[in-house]
Amino acid sequence: MRVGSLLMTLVGLGVAGGAVFIARTQLETTSDATTSGIVEVVAAAEDIPFGSAIESHMLTSIRWPSESVPKGVFTEFETLLPRAGGEPRRAKRALAQGELLLVSKVSGYGEKVTIVQTLGENNRAMAINVDAGSGVGGFVTPGDFVDVLLTQGRGENLSAVTVLQNIRIVGVDQTSDEQVDQPGIARTVTVEVTPEQGQKLALAQQAGKLSLSLRSLDTLEDKPLAAVRLTDIMVERSPVPDDTPRPVIRVRRAATSVEEVQVR
Fold this sequence. Notes:
Layout: H1 2-35, E1 38-44, E2 59-65, E3 124-129, E4 145-152, E5 159-172, E6 188-193, H2 195-207, E7 209-214, E8 228-229, H3 230-233, E9 248-253, E10 257-262
Antiparallel strand pairs: 1-2, 3-6, 4-5, 4-7, 5-6, 5-8, 9-10
Domain SAF: 39-107
Protein name: Flp pilus assembly protein CpaB
InterPro entries: Pilus_assmbl_Flp-typ_CpaB (IPR017592), RcpC_dom (IPR031571), SAF (IPR013974)
């Protein structure tokens, strides 16, 4: 009996151990399958201003689905940081905390970072002279989008026309940092334009006075705008409807007909 009981106990232990082994194997397999689609990528641990040197304390790693990893992403700190005594990489644009670091967003080792590296492919940077009035009271900052208006002529021939729409501000005076949010009166604003827009802008600056119109973030569509002349707005009557009651007089027509007439 004792031998039989001992055998039954050993068999039970063997079955239990086998079940535990199988369960553990399945869990490990499932875990491997779950993590195999995840990779570690490098992101900004804090906001990194435009032109700043990339340093180790500015970086962190986050888990990212391997099937949606953007092109040019960094997966190791070592590929971003210089060797001891070497020149650093720099941010080619302002990077927000948590933003992935891509090859297109950082310079090469020791590479100089200028406003040119913020321009789109085949675009140009062009300066416009402004003052407090034409520069939207100093509320235009790098990263904003504006329309450019031209005013020209004299007297009754004075006219205004929108020559460029949805133009990005890349610099205000000597500042190109898009994180600047303090308004200031500028003397020069630098805008990003295509070669064709640059030609129009150069001609417009010689033809009259340029003004900037700050665009809303909700602007969805640009439409061609006709020029407006001074004579178009110099009207005798206000364009706003006048709802003031006007006096009414009674006028007798013939012997018995009476008509009410509003006095203009």
